[in-house]
Amino acid sequence: MSEGTEATVMLDHPSWLTADDGAAYRAVRSGRSVWAAITCPPETLDDGELVRVSLVSGTDKAIPEVDVVDPAVLTGIDPVAEALREAGPVARLRNPDLWDALATGIVRQVIRAGHARTLYQRFCRAHGDQITTPAGTAWLFPSPETALALDDAEFTRLGLAFKRPALRAAAHAFLDLGEKWAALEPAHLAREVQAVHRIGPWTAAATVADTTNDFSIHPLFADLAVRTWAPRLAPECSWPEDEKEFATAWRKSAGRQLSERTLLTLAWGVRHANATGAAAM
After folding, report:
1. Terminal Cα distance for the chain, rounded
2. How confident is the model at residue 42 (pLDDT cuts 50, 70, 90)?
3. Is residue 190 part of a domain?
4. Of 266, 110, 109, whose CA–CA distance to 258 is shortest?
5. Total domain count for the chain?
6. Using an 8 Å Cβ cutoff, are 80 and 236 in contact?
7. Is 13 exposed, middle or buried (0-12, 13-18, 19+ CB in 10 A)?
8. Is the residue at 10 inside a domain?
9. Which residues contact 99 (CB under 8 A, 6 or more apart)?
């Protein structure tokens, strides 16, 4: 990893909670098993472990993956690359639960990240499985079957009336096609899920990014969050305000490191938003 910089964990997924000791933690479903993911305090990082993942229940031994993106590998001497190098490496847990990733993308549609986090956690606490982790109590996103069993009034009570049609359509589709989807390559998966009612290119790309940590799929790399944080990372650069023009400029500046630059920029934005109380996306 980059020397002299502190590695951080990307906490963009709305399931992350904060323990009494300040650590972030979440529960994740992987097949028939449930895992706890807990960020490690800096003083325990001699082994380089940024997120500790442990089995809570089940027999699946395939540990959810944590990817570390080190900005030291970025090429170029442009202001964005320089700023990201100063920010240091970023770790992100791949979401092993495709249903959760798809549903999370739906909840995040056209609303700010903070509001989406509130709605997501409210739905989980009301109807998701409660999981006891070493860091505290967490909740899983309600299963497709649970989502389909809820009546209109309950979605309205939870503030999810607008999300109801898409969540129901996704639940039906996932029960029919989820196993097939899980075996697809990222780009193919992004195309397939768009056949579901109210799932467009952004939600499809966000789903793929959450499960694979591949942030190079359009239009995610030109999302409002990236367009918000890029000028703050490199205010000396002239960034197009138009989404399509920004996408062209961002892709050109990133070259073959489109996913890495996008992930690192979004992680920088999440940290900045948490520190200032701002929110993007």
Report:
1. 29
2. low
3. yes
4. 266
5. 1
6. no
7. buried
8. no
9. 29, 141, 143, 144, 171, 174, 178
